[in-house]
Fold:
Amino acid sequence: MSLTENRPVFLNLFRIRQPVSAVVSILHRISGILMVLALPGLIYLLQTSLSSPEGFSQVVALLDGQIARLFAVLMIWMLAHHLFAGIRFLILDFDVGLTKSVSSKTAWFVHVCAAVVAAIAAWALLFSGASL
Structure:
């Protein structure tokens, strides 16, 4: 029997169950990439708002909609997840929490903390009537 006979013919990545620490790592990378990609648009909005009173009014009108609020909640979740996962990875770099059980618990802690921060932001932005 050769090595090629033992290889899978079809590998469905959506059926493979990743450990929670792998999911945290993947989401950490994705959130970092998405935040970097959002920077030019956010810088443009800042530049427009500072250019003139009319520009400020345009940005306020743009950010006053529900879509902008949902985007803000998503950005807050990405920032919170990236921050908490980054702190977790820094702690792991000091060889703390490398066992499977502790690593799993800290990964779940990252998910829960990011979700709580996003839920608070969603409540504040979407349901309390607060403005951006």
